[in-house]
UniProtKB/TrEMBL annotation:
Chloroplast listed as a keyword: no
Keywords: Ion transport, Membrane, Transmembrane, Transmembrane helix, Transport
Keyword ATP-binding: no
Protein family per UniProt: Belongs to the cation diffusion facilitator (CDF) transporter (TC 2.A.4) family. SLC30A subfamily.
Native source organism of the sequence: Nocardioides cavernae
Domain spans labelled Cation efflux protein transmembrane: 19-209
InterPro entries: Cation_efflux, Cation_efflux_CTD, Cation_efflux_CTD_sf, Cation_efflux_TM, Cation_efflux_TMD_sf, CDF/SLC30A
Domain of life: Bacteria
Transmembrane segments: 18-42, 48-65, 86-105, 117-140, 152-174, 180-200
Protein known as: Cation transporter
NCBIfam families the UniProt entry points to: CDF (TIGR01297)
Membrane topology qualifier: Multi-pass membrane protein
Amino acid sequence: MGAGHGHGHAGARHRWRLAVAFGLVAGFFGVELAVGLATGSLALISDAGHMAADVVALGAALVATKIATRPDGTGRRTYGSYRAEVFASGLTVLIMLGVSVYVVVEAVRRIGDDVEVSSGPLLVVGAIGLVVNLVCLVLLRGGASESINVKGAYLEVMADAAGSVGVLAAGLLVHLTGDGWWDTVVAVAIGAFVAVRALVLGREVLAVLGQHAPHDVDLEAVVRDLEAVSGVAEVHDLHAWTLTSGMNVATAHLVLRVGADAQVVLAAAGAALREGHGIEHATLQVEALPAQECHAATW
């Protein structure tokens, strides 16, 4: 089996959804930023900053899905470039946190200022933004459960939909009370929401990069199923991790009973991992009793 051989890639299947969402969000970002700067609305500017994060995140997601499926011509990337989408999700996290910090800093700077904001632009732009984000959510929802890359884009758009609701709320409160400070209050609330969503996604990204066992794989059950394979006496040195969304991989040592056929055991063990645990790629090593192959390892 050659280095960097191909696998089905979840993110690539939904690339067209990312492309459409990217076009919609990029178009609306320009409108919201222009209106925000013209009216001095921090809620609009903060939401436009989040839309900018959407534009970068969706663009990075598009690039990552392309890179992830690109053949490796160097022979050095034995797992291909599938991790590109995980790095793109990490970039999304950083952008979202950056926007949150910016909003808080700007809100602090406004303390003591007499804030005047027109409610009309807030209501109009907030309504348009909500429609755009809802369309994008419908587009991306199908791939969010399959790809961490698409999930990152989906969470970005979800947070921005909440931002659009916040802009509408700010416009309504400013209109009813005549107090422009509601614009700042809502902006801070949007920033806090975005930060929380970023931390949730960031935790998932770090788990993949840290090669933690996949959250949907029960390692104890994996060991039980492998030990239940006819001819297997013991299982040890089991490792399982996620290469990228939809690609769980594992390695393990199987100690064979006397007289067991190694090829039959390997085929049955591979089937148990695929059918019972969704692990399509497994590297399994067989050992004869008594098992001494890996005793020299110190980690």
